[in-house]
Every structure is written in C-alpha cells, then in structure tokens.
Amino acid sequence: MSTPVTFHRDAPLRARNTFGLDVRAPLLVEVSDADALPALLASPEFKNAPPLVLGGGSNLLFVEPPDRPLLALTGRRVRRVGEPGDRLRLRAEAGVDWHGFVLDTLARGLGGLENLALIPGTVGAAPIQNIGAYGVEVREAVRAVEAYEPAADRFHRLSSEDCAFAYRDSVFKQQPGRFIVTAVEFELSRNASPRLEYAGIADELAARGVGLPTARDVADAVIALRQRKLPNPAVIGNAGSFFKNPIVPAGRAEALKADHPALPLFASGDADTRKLSAAWLIDACGWKGHRIDHGSGDAGVSAAHALVLVNHGGATGRELFDLARRIADSVHARFGVALEPEPRIIGATWTPPA
Ligand SMILES: Cc1cc2nc3c(=O)[nH]c(=O)nc-3n(C[C@H](O)[C@H](O)[C@H](O)COP(=O)(O)OP(=O)(O)OC[C@H]3O[C@@H](n4cnc5c(N)ncnc54)[C@H](O)[C@@H]3O)c2cc1C
Question: For residue range 36-51, what is the model confidence (pLDDT) as tens digits?
C-alpha cells in the first residue's frame, strides 16, 4: 500500500493557483488519508507552523510566497451513506474535484448541485466560502462537514448549523486555520425542482428549446452561460469574482438607487439589507478592461467581466493586490461603499477603505 503522506520541498505553485502566479512553497505535503493528520501535524515541521490548506488554488492570491507549510488533501473517495425517502446522502472526501462531483451526482439522477456546475476547485473548499452561483448556495445541500482541528487534536462532524454558513462565508472562513475539512456529506434529491429564477437560466433553456428541464439540462445551461461570461483560468489567470457583492442597509441601497437608477439591487436574505452588484460599481468607475501600465504591465481587469482580476502572464501577486486596492478605493470614493475581496490573500492584509 502506498504511503498516505508525500513531501515536496521548494514546490512550484504556478500550476496550483489559478492566477498562475509564479511562487514556490518551502514545503508542500500531500495527504491521501485524513487519519494521517494527527501524527503529521504533531511532527516538528508542523508543530509551530500550522499549515495552510491548498485545494485547487482557485480562490487564493499569493502576494508573497507562503511562509508556512502547505497541506493538500488528495483523498478522492465518494460513497453513499444513507437513502432517506427520495433522497440520497453522499460523502465525498476533500480532494474530490468539485465539478466532477457535480457531474457524478447528475449521472446518479440527483438534483441540487446543478446550478453550481463548473465552479473550479475541490469538495473540501466548497464549504469554506459557501460557494454560490446562479441563485443557489452549497449550504442548501450540505448535511455535515467532517474536519480535523489541529490545536485541539480532534476530529469533528459539524452540522450545517455549526458551519454558520452565510453569503460567501462560514465558520471556516471566519476562523482560518482552525479546521481542516476532510470530507463533506451532501443530501440530494431525486425529485428536486429546478431553480431557474436567476437571470439568464430560463432564457438559455428557452434558446435550447428545453421546455421541462431536468437537473442535467440546467447544468448544461449554467455551463454554457459560465463559458460565455467568465474568463477561463487555463487561458488567462484569474480567481473568478475578486470582490464580494457588498451588503448595505436597505435605506442606503435605496438612496444609491435614487442617485444611480441603473444600479442593480438584490435581496440579501435579510429584510433590513440589500446586496449591491460589485461588478456594476467597478464598471461605473471605468475599470473594465483596464491593464496596469507599470511593473510587469500584466495585472488587469477582465474586459469581459468587471469583477474578475486577471494575470495577462507575468503579473505578481503584489501588483494584483495593489490593483484591487485602487479599485476598492475608487468605488469607495465615488459611492461610499467598501468592497471586500473574496479570495484568501496570502502575505498581505486587506484593510477596508478609510
Ligand atoms: C473562473 C472561476 C470561477 C469561479 N466561480 C465561482 C462561483 O461561481 N462561486 C463561488 O462561490 N466561487 C467561485 N470561484 C472561486 C473558487 O472556485 C471557489 O471558492 C472554490 O471553492 C475554491 O476551491 P479550491 O479548492 O480551489 O480552494 P483554494 O483556492 O485552494 O482555497 C480557498 C480557501 O479555502 C481553504 N481550503 C481549501 N481546502 C480546504 C480544506 N480542505 N480545509 C480547510 N480549508 C480549505 C484554503 O486554505 C483557502 O483559504 C471561482 C473561481 C474561478 C477561478
């Protein structure tokens, strides 16, 4: 049997972060069996340096190379763990590819994850920021998250409530480094009603001549929409949306809307607040398609989507961070709204605009 732990020293990370940043990690350890974590993390190399967990690197910005060991969970088993009524419970290990897992659930005739098709990354990272797209968040399908807590040397099984899921947020994002997610248990239905309310899905299905869509039809529509709208990291480095949509008090949102009638407002799930479109705010400040004219000249904003920062090839993480800073400052100066980055930033601290 192969050993569950593999060490890589001075590991190149260019292919392991979707910005394509050319940084190296002093140590990267791959672990295929979560049972190996307690002994590994008690070893001298980890004892005083809690690891940074690396999934697919699609929600990370390395401003500096990591100053502590990286840990990648490579277990990729998926198994059934229950079948209540028309529902099926699946447990997937952290290293499973997210989009591959969505396709696997569709092939089993299960609905619930189709709106989250084609999001890059791993199953283990999905609960970290409660991934969401096309009107659905992963929390709706998560029954439990299994995690190891190095400081307490304990394995946990967290219920969905324990995870404190919110918009692009969870206990894991609030307390980075506390938990290593080792597996996620999902509950999915064979009779789920498709969720078509989000802009674009119904039109895309109509254009394809689909009348009564199955979950697979919805996934195909979402995949087509995403391929048209979002730059592909295999072609141009990016981490998807760089900023969260800001949530502001309802009165403030209405006042902004009165001044800027084209500003889209969304429900936030709370009657007292509204979600604003960060893409609209950034576009209104003239950033779409902008490319920096100093340093490498390779950091920029996608010409297709104002929310996506891109690496045209040789950008550094510092250049992307500084560009993000300038974008947030300009949005704050014009609209009084503070933007917050979505990706985890390594080697720099984001401070809200003053
Ligand atoms: C083109 C593109 C489109 C995207 N679209 C969306 C979208 O529609 N919706 C959306 O929500 N996100 C989107 N993202 C962001 C990203 O794909 C998701 O956040 C994804 O879940 C990150 O997975 P990952 O494995 O790459 O995580 P990584 O980038 O490797 O890590 C992200 C964070 O999670 C932590 N982490 C990762 N795995 C674990 C684990 N097992 N235990 C504990 N912590 C862990 C890391 O330490 C880090 O803090 C997009 C990104 C790209 C590049």
Answer: 999 999 999 898 888 9
